[in-house]
Specification:
Layout: H1 10-14, E1 21-31, E2 42-56, E3 60-70
Antiparallel strand pairs: 1-2, 2-3
């Protein structure tokens, strides 16, 4: 990343320049939708966790959860 504005979030400013990132992650999905292309009913859940820091220049733990309920 280059030319990051000085008023950007600290996490973005720390990534400026050339960085070596080693990342490991797990992603879990649960899909109970009635149709994947045009769903009208069901539940969709996504959980992910990424860890960087075993090697490279960047260290972080990122958790993300997404959910969608259709009825």
């Amino acid at each position: 990343m280059f030319d990051v504005p000085s008023n950007s979030a600290l996490a973005l400013r720390q990534l400026e320049g050339e960085k070596n990132i080693s990342e490991l992650g797990i992603h879990l999905n649960y899909n109970d939708l009635d149709n994947n292309f045009t769903p009208t009913n069901g539940l969709l859940l996504k959980l992910s966790q990424d860890f960087a820091g075993l090697g490279g220049d960047v260290k972080y733990l990122r958790n993300e959860f997404q959910g969608e309920l259709l009825y």
